[in-house]
Design brief:
3 helices; alpha+beta; about 120 residues; five-stranded mixed beta sheet; single chain; 5 strands; globular; Lambda Exonuclease, Chain A
Length: about 120
């Protein structure tokens, strides 16, 4: 990986950043992905990290990195994204409170998903 001077896999308040660096006076949280196949999910993951930092009083920007595609996508937290995250958290809480989990909806991503065991256990 080409990020030798940066801190890697930093844990903070229940989340784990792939890369953490300081650029000038700006804290940059980097999330490294192999491809842009699940770009929206990767963005939301990074926005969640920025929200966790913001709630702790730390302002940061995000950078989604896809080395194999030579892409870097800058992200900044805003009110619209915070609202989306809060809505997602509410939906997750509703699912958790259900007596039975929802039926599994198999998709093409299921085989490679890190949470596969939760759905098919």
């Amino acid at each position: 990986m080409a990020y030798n001077r940066e801190k890697k896999e930093v844990s903070f308040n229940g989340v784990k950043f792939d890369v953490l660096s300081n650029v000038g006076n700006t804290l940059v949280v980097g999330e490294v992905k192999k491809s842009s196949g699940s770009l929206e999910a990767a963005k939301m993951q990074l926005y969640l990290y920025l929200k966790v930092l913001s709630e702790a009083g730390l302002e940061a920007v995000g950078e989604l990195r896809i080395p194999e595609e030579k892409k870097r996508i800058k992200l900044e937290l805003n009110e619209e994204v915070v609202k989306q995250l809060e809505e997602s958290e509410e939906k997750i809480e509703q699912i958790i409170k259900q007596e039975m989990p929802p039926q599994v909806i198999a998709t093409k991503w299921c085989k490679k998903c890190a949470y596969n065991n939760f759905c098919y256990a």
